[in-house]
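Lab notebook: predicted structure, single chain.

Context: the supervisor wants predicted structures on file for every construct in the current expression panel, including those that have not yet been purified. This is the next one on the list. No modifications to the sequence; it matches the entry in the shared construct table.
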Amino acid sequence: MANTADEARAGIAPTVRLRGPGIVLGVGMGGFFDGILLHQLLRWHHMLSSTNQDRIGLRYYNPHTVSGLEMNTLWDGIFHTVCWLAVLIGLAILYSRVTHHRLRVWGSRVLWGWMLVGWGLFNLVEGVMDHHILGIHHVYAGDGQVWWDLGFLFMGAVLVVGGFLLQRSGRPLDAGEQRDGLGA
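Prediction complete. Output recorded below exactly as produced.
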């Protein structure tokens, strides 16, 4: 494996090395936050809870019936599986790219900034696709649901911008410095 000095000579910026794993980890973490808080704890929606109003013709699974809740829970589980795989893939990419001071990278503004970008991208993509284009569920269905859905998108945009600014404020690794590993 190349060390960070070799990578710096080859022109590989440490912030770029953390971008991919950070974004993938952020997507998984954002999905877990959505699924655990909104699906399970608050029970505001499930993956298919608005298919009675969707735009693609899916069968409606009323989450207030046992059979409907079973189908919604199954799809929530599939959603959580995808989130879990994103986190595992992000960790694997991160592990393969960080060759020195692996524990110190967790304090890196660069990594946490890219994770926030990934979380925001999750909100934007999932929000546009599931809430607006497909219409299979909404953040909080009922009166004012469009405002909840727009708020979710706004939060995603804030996370992307905030994460980008945070990662830019991180200190990249100096080619001659091995002590902090890939950015402060």
